[in-house]
Each structure stands twice: as C-alpha cells, then as structure tokens.
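New to this. Please check this protein:
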Amino acid sequence: MAANNRRMSGKKGAQVGSGGKRRRGLEGKGPTPPAEMRKGHAKQRAAAAKARRTQGRPQQRRGAGRSASELVVGRNPVIEALREGVPASTLYVQQFIDNDERVREALQLATERGGINLMEAPRPELDRMTNGLNHQGLVLQVPPYEYAHPEDLADAAYDEGAEPLIVALDGVTDPRNLGAVVRSVSAFGGHGVVVPERRSAGMTAGAWKTSAGTAARTPVARATNLTRALEAYKKAGMTVVGLAADGDVELGDLEALEGPVVIVVGSEGKGLSRLVSETCDARVRIAMPGGAESLNAGVAAGIVLYEAARRRA
C-alpha cells in the first residue's frame, strides 16, 4: 500500500527512483578547457589546420568538401586521362572486349601507375553505370576531389614565409579554364585558386588534364560565398584586385602585386559580378594594343601572375 500511496502523491520534490538527477545537476562541470580544445574557437581551428599541414593530409577546413565522383567514358578519353595523370580509382573493362591497341595501352597505363583497381564487367553493367553512353568497353572512375578552405591558402603561404598570391574565379564555368589557371598559378609561384561552390567550374577530369598534372600540388579551395571569402581576405590584410576591361588602374601601375593579394578573374562574357566587383579594392585593366575586347580567364590570369612573379623576384 505504501508504494501505491507514493505513486499517487501530489507532493513536489524528488521522487523515489529519480536516480539522483538533481544531485548531478548541482555538480560542477570542471575547469574550462583551453581555447585550443574548445570546438569552434578560432585558436582551435588554427591548431587543427596546422596539425593537418604537419601531417601532410589534404588541407581542408570548415566549408571545404568533396566533389562528386566522375566517370570518364570511351577509349580515347580514358587513355588521355591516364596519360595526363588524372587521379583514378578504378578502370572498368568490358568482358570479352576486342583487345585492340587502345585497350592494351589503357591497361598498361593503369598497371604502371599503380593504385588503380582493374575490374571486368559485363556490357549491361557498364551501360547502366554510364546511363547508356557509348563507353566502347572502357570506363575510368575518378574519385571525389578534396577541396581546401579559402583560409588554408593564405595560411600555407604565411607558413612558408611568403606573401599570399591567390587567384579567385567569378563565374568561370569551363573546367579547361580552371585547369589553365591552376597551371599558371603553379608556374608563377601562386598559392592556390578559389572557386565558388555554385555556378562555377570544378576540378573535373577535364580540369585535371588541362592543368597538366599541376593540380596535384596546387590546391583549389571552394567558397560557399565568394564575396564573403574575399571580405575575409581583406580583413586578414590582403588586397583584392579585380580584372576588368574598364578598370581604373593599368596592370603595370599596380603596386599591390608585391604584397599579399587576391586576383579576381571573371568570365569572358559577363566579367565580374556586381557584388564581387564592389568588394574589390581596385579594378585593373590589361592593356591590349592589338584591339581585342577581352581575354579568356586562363590567359588573363597568366598575364597578371607573370607580372606578380616578376615584381616579387
């Protein structure tokens, strides 16, 4: 009866079987951990980024991410990708395929590179994988690209004792242009490329091929919002320079190239978007005495990067 009375009691307070919840609630949670151990704290993010670089892992911070895996389809495209060193995880070969010269070369390249799985699959399976494309019995799977965070590019430059030299692309949707910019950044001592997460070219197999292998050592960062990424660079003491045909400053007069700088390149057709253009500290034009109205992103970036390297030499 005592148990029934206790269950029906309307009194407030601790009940039998509460497990001491109130007592635990009054206990302290211990000393506050140092800033380097508190999730989300600036010092914790900086320590994590430094540890990743020290361990030689791909540079990646909040906002960074992976692209989707990609399939290169067809005998000639597969061979070109393997020749150019495009990262690959698996080479799928159709069962009972006609063993011609291209098939033999693809198998040889994949075997010599190592780390690429060779898988034999029936034609219906390859048809399903490629959504019915003309794969000609060869399909190469390219793993997701590991993007860096925009802050990682500047951090890596400062760690090397160098002034950051970064290229940001605004509205450039051709992967070949992205690959060409990556190649120029590598050639002239830049520290990486920033692309927006949306409406922009990504590191596809086409971009890898155009980069001629330099994408393996030149990081590409992806920004959720390019304008905010540029504003963060400005707060960190970097000069943001936008390329525009009607720019106020000629490239030869731009002293900012000697210091920490971000070069923003727009698309050949539309140029810089309004918000990105307003964010720039300066709008720079490239003199073109030949009369051309514009240059594609890869060529424009290469010219400015060469000028920056010349001044810094």
